[in-house]
């Protein structure tokens, strides 16, 4: 019997309110250079400290030991989905990040503008990293002339520098396909092929990509330096069991950045538009408290500071969050989890595999008698070190939303 | 390769004595209301403290994160069986709890006396919770007239209030079947069906249930208010690999309550009758020390106090246990584990998902340098937080009962 099936069988509908607050990239590592403190440990966090005494703590492995997740797997795990079982193509993640509202069945591709020589050989895979404005201009040229291929709608959206995405919306399309990218310079753009040679939908999609190239390449053939493009990660939006059905909870996402709105939409959360700051996000939570059972609240600035390697900025982002927290706590949910989707250690200037700390608070979470919420404290918490995909299950348990297993 | 097969291949016969002492529902949570102490932390336990310094500690997830187990899965995990793989039907657990000695192949059903109207519609699923004496009288009436159906023996045993069990003992019978219970009032009793439509033994069993209803209903048709009955959890005793073969250990169970004697019999332990108190249980352990290799000793009162939400009583139950412990330690086994089958937090008045603490003591367990055996101490123990089904494997290892894996 699959564990997810057992969880589903035991899941009950209750009136509990649950909230998952994600400080993106929260986790960090202690080093001599920062006096053996992490940003969370160095920060002044009176409000998190106040919660800590009445909470359980632990650390979460985002995917599997040693694996550094992108935002996609990081969040899918937090939403309770096995991030290895439910993989989301890079094209889909890229499209979500650019704010494209995807529909089930859409096939997405990450694309790069590139420089080709007269024989069609790739000479620069990034076309000298053209400015974003040039990318936007080229995308507009393509979008103006390639709106459809047969019955399939084509959506082109510019990203930063040489990057853009192409979304194919039609019937009977599927990925994944091989890349239209030689992955190095000096070679021609390869023709894409179905990953599964017997899959008719993939075959149809491969033909569509070939036709797209035939139509699109001539449009920019005289541009310099970006006279061609490459496509990678061509895949459709996977079928993911809906959050509401899986947990019997009506979910809302209060996020600021498109990527996180998009990821929450993948599992069917209601996307709440408007709030631009954590204070506004918390205010909206208070307003909408009665409308939903589950709130996903996403805070980006911890990750940004980590990516910049800026310890002080990460500490400050945590302190800003902590200062806003009393607003949220005006309506304390029955179950509250505060964590990250992964660690983004300043020393690494990027995502990492280090288990992120998690705080779990409810009337029955028990107290780990810890005065603060920190990585070091979380190491000795009663939740232990566990896979992030189980956090939702612990939140359900704390909401008394599971029937007993066996007599 | 299945992990269990690997363990079996590596398992050696030794002369070691192992003891598993289960304080039922031992685990608890710390809360402000109890000065941030659990009953185990609040209790005066000089003898457990004495063991602790020479032991390893950890916490065990009874089944999977967030899942609250009944006594069945809780104990199967402690006996080293995956409680999701080896599921025991509710009818079987109920029969064991009432002291019915089951044989392999027996099909058991939980039953309720109920009130039916003239058209056979269920009007009260519990017949107004009739007194236990009425239930016993009704069961005696049924048992007197329905002893056999064809070649199949029928055993009827009264429980508390409206509850009873029916056991079918014959050849070629199997569950599980659907319930003969509409699960709400205002509907007729549904006809039971095989869960697997192609299973001939289940089909035969479904016919037997129908015949049982045909014979039994008229016997109580004129009774008030219990003029009918419902049957649920109709399943056979599953095939579970025998403990003795699995671990090369001759096991004995020294339990007081029928449920735990029954659960130990499911895996083939020798059931020791007689002892009524923990002192008597320990005395019997000393007497029988040479007869068996493995002793399962079950102490119920921690769970009872937890179910009553009585912190002081749970603390007292732990202190009573601790006071008796020196008797047991007159013959210290080579490997000793002291734990619960799950937590029963007083604040929850019931079983829970919180990992229970475990103490593991042997000449090679190592010391976690902890002065006491507590939930908070167990959080930082060398065993970490692990699934309860692995405790037996750790006990085997401490008994040096595993060969090295690979060269």
- Work out the strand percent of chain A: 15-25%
Domains of chain A (count): 2
Shape descriptor of chain A reads: globular
Rounded to the nearest angstrom, the distance between the terminal CA atoms of chain A is 18 Å
DSSP strand tally of chain A: 14
CATH architecture of the largest domain in chain A: 3-Layer(aba) Sandwich
Question: What is the fold's blueprint, element by element?
Answer:
The structure is a homodimer of 407-residue chains.
Chain A: H1 3-10, E1 18-23, H2 39-42, H3 46-52, E2 55-61, H4 71-78, H5 90-97, E3 107-116, E4 122-124, H6 132-145, E5 148-149, E6 152-158, E7 163-169, H7 200-220, E8 228-236, H8 243-247, E9 251-254, H9 258-266, E10 270-271, H10 278-288, E11 294-299, H11 301-307, H12 311-328, E12 335-339, E13 356-362, H13 375-378, E14 384-387, H14 391-398
Parallel strand pairs in A: 1-11, 1-12, 2-14, 9-10, 9-11
Antiparallel strand pairs in A: 2-13, 3-4, 3-7, 3-8, 5-6, 6-7, 12-13
Give structural notes.
- Two copies of one chain form a homodimer.
- With 407 residues, chain A is an alpha/beta fold.
- Chain A is 32% helix and 19% strand.
- Chain A folds into two domains: 11-86 and 240-398, 3-Layer(aba) Sandwich (Alkaline Phosphatase, subunit A); 92-236, no CATH class.
- An eight-stranded mixed beta sheet of chain A has the order 10-9-11-1-12-13-2-14, with helices on both faces. In chain A, strands 3, 4, 5, 6, 7 and 8 form a six-stranded antiparallel beta sheet that branches.
- In chain A, helix 6 (132-145) crosses helix 7.
- Chain A is globular, with a radius of gyration of 23 Å.
- Chains A and B meet through helix 1, strand 14 and helix 14 of A and helix 4, helix 5 and helix 13 of B.
